[in-house]
Design goal:
Elements: H1 14-22, H2 33-45, E1 56-62, H3 78-87, H4 92-99, E2 103-110, E3 121-123, H5 141-160, E4 165-171, H6 175-187, H7 203-219, H8 228-235, H9 238-252, E5 256-259, H10 262-274, E6 282-284, H11 293-300, H12 316-334, H13 338-341
């Protein structure tokens, strides 16, 4: 699991890429973050003619045993109900994916439901929900290995469709708790500083969630926080662990990675701890309203593309931010240079 090879981004093209950006008919740096974004995309793709081919959006779904402890405003059944909503085209992510021509696939990593065949459903179910982390590790070591094994097959479907860019979203009642626990362990931050309102908890419900997650941390006091795989085994949902693995595999194939909100970033954090080269391939689409997300982004020293006060998950931030990426690539490829346009550059 630790041996997924992610190539270091070649910096030899950096000067050439930067010269192409600086030669455009604009003052130096006038397109701000679009310039940095264009440079990142060109660098990852090792080309002076970057492109975005057949964008894919993967929504990883799974249930969490700890949901039975009452940490969410919604019942566990909402996970499979929302998966059906995705497959029927009725969710927010469907609307935005259709608008921006994403190929949307739902990955059943561990939903507590038996789904019928659907062309947009990838069935990689490990088990019908993780164990309750109040009582035991969320998954066994064998199950964690399966998450990594299945990730290769998930990303294979993306690559085989000719895509070079993939977004990561999720669905799972209880997965903000899972993400908070992962963040707390890997960054050695007190759990109460990582926990947010998730599905819209009121103050009393939030205090109860924090109380329960403190009990979880106490129950796993022998956990080694320096080992991301151990942290995933104890705290992750199957959808979170499979998303972590799929990010690593996607980067190993040279794909650009779009990271959605808090839960996707917690999955990314575990992947980053396993292979820091992953960061070069990642674009962080927005900052969530969920409490811990800004701290995660600050730790990674990354600036998200948007701040729209969103906290829905599903990969919605990936889809909504996509036109920004298109603008970055289009100006890089199509904007005239001073020389070509016959415009005088500054002295």
């Amino acid at each position: 699991m630790k041996d997924i090879c992610i190539e270091e981004v070649d910096l030899l093209l950096d000067d050439t890429i930067q010269k192409q950006i600086d030669s455009k008919t604009k003052p130096l740096g006038a397109l701000g973050k679009l310039e940095a974004l264009a440079k990142q995309i060109a660098r990852v793709q090792k080309t002076l003619t970057p492109c975005l081919n057949y964008p894919h959006l993967l929504v990883f779904a799974g249930d969490h045993g700890i949901a039975d402890a009452g940490i969410s405003a919604y019942p566990k059944a909402v996970t499979h109900q929302m998966v059906m909503n995705f497959l029927n085209g009725g969710a927010a992510v469907n609307v935005f994916a259709k608008q921006h021509q994403f190929n949307l696939k739902v990955v059943d990593a561990g939903v507590d439901h038996d789904f019928k065949f659907h062309p947009d459903l990838l069935n990689f179910k490990i088990r019908k929900g993780t164990r309750n982390t109040l009582l035991a590790a969320a998954m066994t070591e064998e199950e964690l290995h399966l998450c990594f094994d299945h990730a290769h097959k998930v990303i294979e479907t993306v690559v085989n469709n000719g895509s070079n860019i993939v977004g990561f979203g999720e669905m799972g009642i209880g997965n903000t708790a899972s993400a908070s626990l992962i963040m707390s362990a890997l960054l050695k931050i007190e759990i109460e500083n990582c926990v947010g309102r998730g599905t819209g908890l009121n103050n009393e419900q939030l205090e109860n969630k924090i109380k329960i997650l403190k009990e979880v941390v106490a129950a796993h006091k022998d956990l080694d926080p320096s080992d991301p795989l151990e942290v995933l085994k104890h705290y992750a949902g199957y959808e979170v662990a499979m998303m972590t693995a799929s990010m690593l595999v996607a980067a190993s194939k040279g794909l650009l990675i779009l990271v959605d909100g808090f839960i996707a970033t917690a999955a990314f954090l575990a992947a980053y701890k396993l292979n820091p080269n992953l960061l070069d391939y990642a674009i962080f689409c927005h900052v969530s309203e969920e409490k811990g997300h800004r701290m995660l982004l600050d730790y990674l020293h990354v600036e998200p593309l948007m701040d729209l006060n969103m906290r829905l998950g599903e990969g919605t931030g990936c889809a909504v931010s996509y036109p920004i990426l298109q603008s970055a690539v289009n100006f890089f490829n199509d904007m005239a240079s001073f020389e070509a346009a016959g415009v005088s550059n500054k002295n």
